[in-house]
């Protein structure tokens, strides 16, 4: 199967993400509009840049033009002109017509009529293909662009079954409550009687939960409720599970890493219980376009799954601008590094400009704090132009209380909000495709997420604008200088590992508590030999009991699911509570709390600043007070890596590459107070508890004599390795769907376990999430991209855009940018010249 160029459906299966597809009516051609270019001109004018810029267009078949197909030459030092011209590339993605087909003959007239009443005259080709497979009982995953109508792929067969079989039931699972609520709303708008849909999530009152259990035929829920409420009490849900005909898994590409591994085992638990009641539901999965979607869906569900990847929906055109904020020559950052204008500042200004222009705009920001800062900045800017626009700009993020989220979603749907700064909570949440513009403040970590976010923009007749604003990050630097890596590359693979013992053990305990595990369950459902080893340890530890008929949970008085965190570290959530009033403001993950909710940390909520007074990890509470400091805080931590076991090793002359098990000990040791432009005001020491992580890592060693021969004397080795490690961590998400915060690293001129200069990059989750393993598999490509990111950065000696890290425990010292390029040249050269042995 061949990979196809971005942005144009070909004859074969589409394995890469095209420009996300807004819904365009089947009647009427896709018209070209200059709206996207007009909005880009407005953004450029707001930056004081000539708005008359050249825009490259993709060629026939979506091919990249020559100027985007090759890497630029090595820059000869810093070019001051680039400091003031932030637009690196502008590319217009052409519109694409849709391919509509007839409704399938098996669809009941009342179901077809309901869709027609909501404006769906005929389905697109991929919708009909996926629905046909699901109707025939085939498990299917549909992997097409944003707003391509994936919902109809499961709605049509599910509603047809519920209409034909009055006792049949269905279960819908989504990663966010907002998405499930939106899908439930859309289903109710169809007006079909006797479907009896209902929500089941953490916000559902108890009386409504009871009604759903007794009467609902299509339940809209999430993995958390399935894990904590339904499966542990499956006897109460026997009627629903006995008649279960379909399980819908929406936005399944989000189930990756440790969370994805938990969900994979959770789905196996569900199917096992359903089988106990005599049901074998058909599974329908919906995904953004990912590499090898059928293979991923099989790993997620444990079943054979057929993929539908050729998108038949139409697409309006988009102008995609790649934007690198200029260097602020008058400012210096940490260790004298040059400082770029923050992506949040650029995005605030763009959001304000676009709102003033009347353009409905979303600004996607990487962090909760960033969403608040971006919305506040835009409000301040529009206040000087039109104060009436201030209340039409807001932030939206996770951590808000349910009633706050619902109010914002309602205002967004009614059009009362014109500009919204949001985290990825709206990437997968409310269906709001058809906006005029999307500003992506910092690459969201994966191409799939970028196109999901970009797909929120684009109307039937008007082309839209999408701007990627680079953060001070090696990945962002690489992408804005190499548009082919974003616009012409295959999307990433989703990585998950259901065999991770740190995930498998608690899931097996939950399964045994639901129903004793048999040898057949272990062999056919939970992974065979790996599961047997984990079960043996659980029996030895007294957690489970072994009987001739299987493995048993020893008590019926309590359920283990309540103590198993499927979304993160296993440390649960820490509540942010206002000390003076007792009001809960929001939550943070327990694993990240030492770095984000430590004493002295600044926490933003709905535009108001709070400072943390006390953090109690055992109680899961951080006490805060309201304050408006003119600084922000960034935590600093130290770590050590111990090699536990080597799983793979290859020798390449002076370079050796390994993959294996490691033990990482880390501790938050302080935090920095910084001004909004990044200037360090103060470094404050902290004594937070040390945390130990058993995980997996890829590492390489280099012979000291080769480093010396390359002109890197011993005094420069620590800085060169340190800079190469930082940049490599920043670039790994280019090859595996993850975030740089999901991984960590260590570099040292003399590691005690190797006796050589060594660079580690390890997973940030217990047992590993497959990320370091993926890095090991693509090491040469990964390190080449790392070298290019460092080389392309306009700074002289290193900055956050290339080799500085926002989470460095050593304060980004020492760092040697030129030395890092030489180190990477040595490693890449050794990989090429010396075939691996070992």
From TrEMBL:
Name recorded for this polypeptide: DEAD/DEAH box helicase
Entries under InterPro entries matching the protein: DEAD/DEAH_box_helicase_dom, Helicase_ATP-bd, Helicase_C-like, Helicase_put_actinobac, HRQ1_WHD, MZB, P-loop_NTPase
A Pfam family recorded for this sequence: WHD_HRQ1
PANTHER family: ATP-DEPENDENT HELICASE HRQ1
Annotated GO MF terms: helicase activity
Residue ranges occupied by any Helicase C-terminal domain in the UniProt entry: 350-502
Keywords, sorted A to Z: ATP-binding, Helicase, Hydrolase, Nucleotide-binding
Compositional bias of kind Acidic residues: 68-79
SMART domains xref list: DEXDc (SM00487), HELICc (SM00490)
Residues in Helicase ATP-binding domain copies: 131-308
Annotated segments matching region Disordered: 1-29, 59-83
